[in-house]
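Protein 1 of 2
SEQ + STRUCT:
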Amino acid sequence: MFQTRRLGVGISLLAFLAASPRVLAADSYFDSVGGSDSADGKTEATAKLTLKMPTGTGNIVHLKRGSSWTMSLSASSVTVTTYGDGDRPIINGSVSVSNSVVEGLKVLNITGNGMNVQGGSTVQDCDIDGTNCTSNGVGMGVMGTGNKIYNNIVEHYHNSVSGGQMDNSGGAEGIMVMASNNEIAWNSVIDLQGPNATLGGFEGGCYEIVNGKAKSTISNVSFHHNYCEKSVGLWEASSGDFSASGGDIQDPANHGIVENVTISYNLSVDAMWMFLLQPVNTDFKNLVFANNTIIHTPNTLVWFDASHTSMGLDVHTYTNTAAGDGGVTFDTDTPYYKKGAGFQPGAVIVKNNIFVDTISTTTHYMMFSTNLTDHFNNIFVPAKASVGSLTLGATEQKIDLDSLAFTSDWRLTSASTPAIDKGVTVDMTTNGSVATTAVDPTIFATTFNQDIDKHQVPCGAGVDIGASEYCEGAGGSTGSGGATGAGGAAGTGGATTTTPTGTGGAVGSGGAQGSGGAKGRGGAQGSGGAVGSGGGQGSGGAQGSGGAQGSGGTTAAGTTDTRTGTGTKGCSCRLGLGSGTFRNLDGFAAALLLGMLTLVTRRRRRSG
């Protein structure tokens, strides 16, 4: 059972409403238990029973906690919030969001995708649960631009399609992004995977970018301070059109582009790779992986298998078997990925990360299957770690786990000297000239100045390595949420599915060490949450073959050396590489956007 303790790093909806003009806006109240359709629905006391969204723009819809409706909810130019006490209001079905603010819902996804998010929206503190989903789908699909996806939980998706071929097989994804200018922060994705016979293992993933057609670009996206557990990978990216419906997308002249994107300050536990990239159909420019902590425990082999344990994967060779292509083989050789040499300067940057492999005391699995030019200030565990294709630089080290002196939920302590002050400052503009699109600093404003527990970065003489920054006296990385279970006996905050916010509870809910609680869901990033409205790939995924693309750590004042302070704590694309063979998987189609919007995603998966 997973439980979470949230610190509320997202915007306050009530504060937002209070400060915003409400011209022509109307309040509507709905209560599936005590409401009446003969009432006017204008107050809590006169709430309606049947949930029907108002027409017009600027309306505020209030859903009574403890309520439940079975429907496809469409939120367009509206604010959807909750009132009363108890569990989140439940939508049994799916939610579509466009130019809206949606918070506090629980989506019990029955078929397809949980939530589809178009442009200009904020989705926060929602929970999308795929336990009863009968089809392959995505927790949340972010298909438009200018969205903020904060403090959400996506959990328990286990459907996987084995189509018999690489191009029509795939699994569930947590949060999938298909457009530029989006921020995905403080979310938790847990338990997304299912067996896939075609791919010879498991399929599923936590976070992803899919660029669905040749010559299109996704830029300025930040995935930061998120948590990932019991899935197949933390992050994946590809153009997604492996069937080459756009015209041999594997040909470098037709590649999609992913640029000015960061994956930083995330914690991933038993979720295979940090990244799975597909340079065979995508040009990556200024793709920054910074201050992530990637943990492989023995559970890795309980949930998966030994061929899926690498932490950095790519697909650079692919034989296109699509009709009419005659089995053409593409072996990537571009300015961003050179055949035999890997990712070139400024393409993919890996710095300040901690990679831990504790799967076995005798077998050390290869961590990276591809070479990188830009990798700095990383720590690899154990001292006998197999780093694969990487040749470690002077700023990198291999050490045993005891040397890091982690807490039980993978935070640094005062004894974590190999990581404390050993990192470097991260700035997206450093390699921004490699990209065609300009870096938008507003997207990354809060990415690098706080750690996963909202400690100020740096808190001391320099930036620490990994997802947590050690700050003595700031609430501490070692128990700000209380010792394990200190918030109450296990489960006091309620089971995850009913009260994900948990105010006490077992490890992760009131928390073992670390203000976000233990490594349970939401625990890592503290503010937790689950966005309930997603959408995304469905059967075909995000804009693959022609699909539409859609358009704080508060301060920890401390001295430089003592680290004292008062801070507030605050693919479905896998690829198979067995015997040098590349395995790809197709995405799935999703019905969405106030009607039916078909998205197509092509992905690959690689087994180490």
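Protein 2 of 2
SEQ + STRUCT:
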Amino acid sequence: MDTLRISERARQWGILPYYYGWQGDLVETSPEVENAILAAMGAAQDADAPPRLRRPKLPRDPCAPPPRRAWGWSVQLYALRSSESWGIGDLADVRRFGRWSRSQGASVILLNPLGAQRPTLPYQPSPYFASSRRFRNAVFLRVEDVEGARVADIATEREEALRLNLQRTIDYDRVFELKTAALWKIFNASPRPRGLASFAAREGPALGEFARFNAQLDGRPPEFHTWLQFHLDQQVARASKEIGLITDVPVGFEPDGFDAWRFREYLAPHTRVGAPPDEFFRDGQDWGLPPLNPWKLGQARWEPFIDAMRGAGSHAAGIRLDHVMGLFRLFWIPEGMKARQGAYVQYPSRVLLSLLARESRRANAFVIGEDLGLVEPVVRRQLKKKGSLSYRLVWFEGSDPRSWPRDAVAAVGTHDLPTVAGIWTLSEPETRLHHLRQKLVEMTQLPDNAPVVDVAVEVYTQLARGRPRLVLASLEDALGVHERPNVPGTTQEFPNWRLALPVPIEQIETSDGPMRIAKAMRDARR
């Protein structure tokens, strides 16, 4: 079979024959990759044609409207600890921090994804590699706030858990063990709190399936896992009353978790999702996530996408879609191949955008699309038409924030990118990114010996004066943290998703950096 014939067949199935790399070079899809992806889609025979996609009838209305001019904090919840935390930041911590942030003029807090993890050891730390995008992670519960905690004997677990705050690296395994032990005692003391039955009824059969899936993994009854999700919902709701929460939606889910099991018929086997090489990640990225087969989404009644949106939209003021390009195309990497050998596969973007807008309006939550990396102009145009905010980062933009688009979120970086301190002091381990320091020099006009916090404050002052509707300030930048939360492509080299902030909330609320950034935002009338 010749290359041309393979390429034409691949086009019919939505496999792109090429893409333009980050340096403008044409990167062609090889016949080997096309064949592997076709097989994963179910196009095993030459004569196989793509099935007809069932497209639902949806209104053309846009997403819920974003704020006119506002600011907030970007927070890794696990890192936001207080003196009352059990070794990890929790929903009571974000409730307290939200109350303080609101008093300083902030309107929102962007949280990392809260998706549930499998109740097994070793406990998965990455919030972007969750067992489920719909249900939530039990380690974020504040144990003492659960109904029945006062009558259960959890003193031993609490005492040991509080000692975990003395170490900056989060011990997820021990946190999970201690919280589960304490919550199991509370469950046995108060298994049927008021509101549990109505919550379970609202969540429908999916909650029962999730509870039974977890019960098979940890040996505890399904009722315990339903009970955990009820209390998670309660605590998220309480936090949302203090400040608007922006929840984050990962592009996929882990291959051995609940979502992968539930939607197993609609996945493309022997492939993974990632990203091609770019300026920041020269070897490409392999995220290890199983892709949904775009030709089977109609058969699934679009539930994999709807479920993720509804989970994120519950009690949320905004929804952030990580790698929003996934609504248009995803980079598939066949089994046995490296990230840079992958190819792009198209997705039914019109349907997904309409579903996104419908769920946004249903939750009354505005939308932020993380449109970074190799993003085609047509993608941003379609997102803007649907009312989604774009992303604009200091590290990627070369212009004054006053000339950035209005319908955008302005920030310095993301969880995968260097902090201000890491670049200003050149402590960022990825030395080829040290050239970004010149951006800080040009933006702040500060001398080389300026303190890190002064640099961060000046950068966010410039963002505060810019055009974008929303500015998100990173707590890592405000506190002068050198390490970024995650270094893609690494596993053991860095403590990814495991580093707590260097000081607890009690000190953050009086720290110089956060106070000065909040003042800069108020002065800019955000």
